[in-house]
Design goal:
Length: 115
Amino acid sequence: MNSTVVDMLATARLARLIHADGITKPFRAWAFTRAYGGHRPSTVPDQVPPEQWPAADRDDPPFVAGVLSCRWCVSVWIAFGVVAVRRCAPRVWDPVARALAASYVTGWLAEHEDA
């Protein structure tokens, strides 16, 4: 498979992993707490886009909180990393990218099948 397509699917999987998967929920909670100076506002749950936050938190959200709560924002930063790793360490990255791509496609298919 074309490495560009593999990298796009790997980026999508990593973005979902960071933004929404249950396995990384403790990381997101920790990051929100750190971003807000040690106390995570109960009004700003993870996975809620900043435009839906209460006005007090929406006016000037910490950078990390804004990025982690926006799947598109996360994907941009991940894509930069994926491109850099593909250029700097293609032999190491290729099997990792293929595994992430396979995971993403399998998850997507599982969500869309009739079972």
